[in-house]
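Lab intake sheet, docking and co-folding queue.

SAMPLE TYPE: protein with bound small molecule
LIGAND NAME: zinc ion
LIGAND FORMAT: SMILES
REQUESTED OUTPUT: full 3D complex as structure tokens
PRIORITY: normal
SUBMITTED BY: R.K., bench team

The fields below were copied directly from the construct record.
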Amino acid sequence: MSHPHPELKAPPTLPRNGLRVVALGGLGEVGRNMAVLEHRGKLLIIDCGVLFPEEHQPGVDVILPDFSFLQGRWQDVVGVVLTHGHEDHIGGVPYLLRERGDIPVVGSRLTLAFISAKLKEHRIKPRTTQVAEGDRLNLGPFDCEFVAVNHSIPDGLAVMVRTSAGSVLHTGDFKMDQFPLDDRITDLRAFARLGEEGVDLFMVDSTNAEVPGFTTAEKDLGPAIDTVFRTAPGRIVVSSFASHVHRIQQVLDAAAAHKRKVAFVGRSMVRNMKIAQDLGYLKVPRGLVVDAKALDDLPPTKVTLVCTGSQGEPMAALSRMANRDHQIHVGEGDTVLLASSLIPGNENAVSRIINGLTRWGAKVVHQGNAKVHVSGHASAGELVYCYNIIQPRNVMPVHGEWRHLRANADLAIATGMHPDNVVVVDDGMVVDLVDGRVKVTGKVRAGYVYVSAGAVGDVTEDELRDRLTLSQQGTVTVVALVDADSGKLTEPPDFLARGLGTDEKMFDAAIPAIEKALADAASQGIGDPHELEQRIARAVSQWAFRKHRRNPLVVPVVIEA
Ligand SMILES: [Zn+2]
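RESULT FIELD (auto-filled):
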């Protein structure tokens, strides 16, 4: 088993007979999936997703992979293969194409339809190549073959990448539902054929590797969804991902069976469901779906609303309904169905929404009290099948937090793989395949890149820390007039405090600490106002913590008098 080494440096030049794999996201986290394959000077990208912020990342829209590994090498990129249309696999593409607009974007029909609609909002027209299972496509030195996989969005693909240095089979996200709504199962026959041919590196979805057994079928949710529709005394509000076509299909079927109308609410839900319907992935009985405004004329027992926000996203419809900040007022008699998974990290936000909705009198049905969700990812039993069918030479678990990657690696080893052939790595670690053997050879930058108020990379880790400090500890501004010659205060500084829950006068007691900091600076011949500001900030911070166990954000302003 390979372990990450913090001392790892930039990798050596890749030998001509080598294949390099660098995950810029998705390892050690759920989201922001992105892998870069390098061979003979060319680069192939597999997926480019976003990660959604958590509560400790205030003001962040989404988190992108760090593209600095690709800086100066954009012309070497031969394409980006998208395995499926989930945001954590395609959400970063608009930002990728800002770097180089003509990178070929490769994916299945539905995936390309979703990404193209998204790119249109960014006013980007991509160069797309549509592929389907069974297709082969040469992208530079990478010979790609696509394999059908089943997931919580239709039209998912795994990709086999053949190069002269060896082959990589990347599953994308997948599970092995044997009775999917669209009858399109994960193609184990292809997996077996590719295994027979020889898979040098198997990159496998780890999201559910800790879950024993098998992921149950999407169709198994039918009865629970039907129960909601049979028993709901008033309106039904269903919240799901805007991409979960099959889940929403089940909701539409139940609505039709119980003679209710359906309206889609929210921009992404309306957009994606129209795409899915136009392309035939979503079957909508005539007259079933109506405009949200038309629901006003119907009795509550005839109404179904389908919206986003099942992860507690603050701007999504459901969260705004829970806050009574939406034109649809959810209340007594309404039933809210949270028909999707709970992504780790979102528990508090979702719990707040459930509390908000129930406080207004709604009944909330969710995965904690009814069988209204199945996962989109293969559980341990399915993964073991894959290892045994494919018998890869080397394995690299992808997509998941460290515990998921580790659990997936253990499954591979349990099927008889030698631990040396199973490589568990974090984002940015460089894995080279040379002569059929994998080795960790270095590390590249793969930190978070924040999109905040639409701007990429303006908000740094330091500034995010400031935001957190501001929100939790408040702020104090210190305005100090300093004599340019003596370096001393010309009068007592002004303190302006916000969010501290205390009197600003408290800080008058910090003046001696400021005077001492200035005297120390003067004795070292330091008079630069910026440096003096840093020293005042440090002095006030230390004083506030020592004397009051407080840790406000200190904003120093030095004016030379
Ligand atoms: Zn997915």
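REVIEWER NOTE: The mean pLDDT is 92.
SIGN-OFF: pending second check by T.M.
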